[in-house]
Design goal:
alpha+beta, Ribosomal Protein L30, Chain: A, 3-stranded antiparallel beta sheet, 4 helices, globular
Length: 95
């Protein structure tokens, strides 16, 4: 006879909330279409960050190929990604 401890099960609502609030991030990829000024302005619009921070993110995407632009809940990342995509920037939500 084996001694097993029952595994607690999270209800679906708790699991959904856990997935929503898990650490998510918006990754911005470099492209050769947009100017630095366009990207900097759009990053500021999407995230509310300062001009120097938006410049840092833009330069990182340019030189390293990608940059983490924002971190938060999935729904907030989805909104940020939508604003960045409004000018056809290439972004991905990762969790």
């Amino acid at each position: 006879m084996t001694n097993t401890t029952p595994t607690p099960h999270l209800d679906e609502e708790t699991q959904a909330h856990s997935r929503e609030s898990a650490p998510w991030q918006v990754v911005l990829f470099n492209d050769e279409v947009h100017s630095f000024d366009e990207v900097i302005l759009q990053v500021q619009k999407a995230t509310g960050c300062s001009n120097p921070e938006a410049e840092r993110i833009t330069l990182q995407a340019h030189f390293k190929g990608k940059a983490c632009t924002f971190q938060g809940t999935f729904s907030t990342c989805y909104k940020v990604a939508g604003i960045l995509r409004a000018i056809q920037l290439i972004v991905e939500i990762q969790g």
